[in-house]
Amino acid sequence: MGLTQLDKVWAEHVAADLGDGWSLLHIDRHLLHDLSGTGGLEEIAERGLSVRNPELCFATPDHAVSSAPGRTGETFAPGARLHAGLRDLSAASGLHYFGLGQMGQGIVHVMGPELGITLPGVTLVCGDSHTCTHGGLGALAFGIGSSEVAHVLATQTLRQRKPKTMRVSFEGAIPTGVMPKDMILHLIGTLGAAAGTGYAVEYAGSAIRALGIEGRLTICNLSIELGAKMGFVAPDDTTFAFVEGRRFAPKGAMFERAVAHWRTLPSDPDAVFDREVTIDMASVSPTITWGTSPEHAIAVDGIIPDPGTAPDPDRRAAWRSALDYMGLEPGRPLAGTKVDWVFIGSCTNSRMSDLRDAARLARGRHVAAGVTAWVVPGSEAVKREAEAEGLDAVFREAGFEWREPGCSMCVAANGERVPPGARSVSTSNRNFVGRQGPGARTHLASPAMAVAAAVTGAITDVRRL
Amino acid sequence: MQPFTRVVGPAAPLLRQNVDTDLIIRIEPLTQLKPSELGPHAFEQIRYRPDGSDDPDFVLNRPQFRGAPILIAGRNFGCGSSREGAVWALMSAGLRCVIAESFGDIFFANCFQNGMLPIALPGATVERLAALAADGAPFDVDLVGKVVRAPGGETVPFDVDAQRREALLEGLDEIGRTRKRDAEIAAWQAQDRTARPWIWQLAS
Ligand code: SF4
User: Fold this and answer.
1) Which of A103, A106, B61, B98 is the most buried (most CB within 10 A)?
2) Same domain assignment for residues A280 and A358
3) A94 and A229: one domain?
4) Identity of the residue in A49, A247, A261 whose CB atom sits nearest the CB atom of B196
5) CB within 8 A of B41, min separation 6: which ones?
């Protein structure tokens, strides 16, 4: 029987067999951010330990820094201690650090791929659940807690058990108006937010092959919202072309050697998965969430579900409280619901392809009266490239605010919040109660649908714009 | 790490599904407070009324569940963010054990790092235990015997990974244990430098 990509990459990284199915897994790349990285570095310093392999650690502030134009690490005062801590402890330990205003700074999950830190077949961790994003390049990447961050800093390894495998195949041509974000929201809406628990998800199929790397990163980003700690796509020529020439990626003959190895990583044709799911692309529409879990996702031209029709009492209760929190009435179309805020950003959708999609629709239109709309590029590099293409001007002319790179309103850890009761269409990945600020009502959608909402002032089917 | 052998006390039923770690602890207190100070912020958004007073409908505010060490939770408890603060907030609020049908993977692992015991049981069993818990009578969660004793005498055995159980019972320090294997890690790295030099020879 053939091996899956998970089998191959896992086996390659076992530094010791700990018995009972536990492995001491070597970690090739460790990303750190202000919120969990600072604490991890403090913890090992307090214990009198040092960073075992600082050359494999890459740090940047993103969560608790302001995204206001002209910001410094102190602009959001409550985050100043975390910002300074990450900077100073990174310098003291000799790990790579990308500060505000420098190339490399940005949301960790945008920074890793763009600098060539993320490579096919590496094990990559970060104290952040959306580390699964990096699977878009064929990395085995997953989020960890802060105790594990300290463990990796001190030992460059983690004690892990191999997850089960699930292959999700998206087959068929991508319908007009459908973006990678719609594909993954549709999947989560279909399978539920716990379907991936205990699994590593491999995304496959003709529609995945047709996507560029940024689209694959978006899909892998929401693996954790399916419950899966890790999700990835087999590396292919698209992957190698993306990696080539990036700052920390191998060069010349070393690159060729790496590619030869990466070509051996995809799952064998006869590999068997613990679970197989196929999604027919013809069934995928532009998708948006209506509730407070990413599984509360429906086609944008769909009807707000009635808890009375929920498949079980648990879901009936969950739908009821979600509708109550979101201020929505069952049985009505979701499209047309008035919107107050629009956020284009986050590690899900803040890369160049996202901003180009958004700008194409924003050009020549204007944000509706009463709507506040922000565009927050994912990294300093994205910001500079977008400005070089004039996208910032397109957004400004259309009435959007153009801001500095960071997590911003995705997480509300930086003073940037959607006000209580206000309704937001956001390109981020979590519509949890209070995620964008206490009482904020979040609808997750693609950058294109976010622009459609901004310029019409309501949830709008982008195909009708 | 605080060892866990046995916990006896009321079990508060909170059978809401998909309780995410943002709901358990909002991110803002995590930027400001120490783990031991997070208790008052646990479940903040569903625990207090708009004026800041306790919401009497929230289970941990009911007299029989104040200070309960056990939580009986809905499916997919602790999904979402990797924030270990979710475990710290629950512990700071006095909880030591969560019983649910399923858990978010990262939250589940974070529990074991902190001396918190997550127990996964079939949904029907969780519901039955929740019904028995209603009046606040004490449960006995025994990690040595791997059994939950419910009020009224029902005993429910549970599975827990052998290595995790041992670490909890002994309060073992994971970093210390792994550091004893440093020679193996060094040997692995030495062979990998030859096998995959691009991991190690970072350009720039
Ligand atoms: S953008 Fe949002 S989801 Fe992504 S790392 Fe930052 S806070 Fe987390």
Assistant:
1) A106
2) no
3) yes
4) A261
5) B25, B26, B29, B33, B89
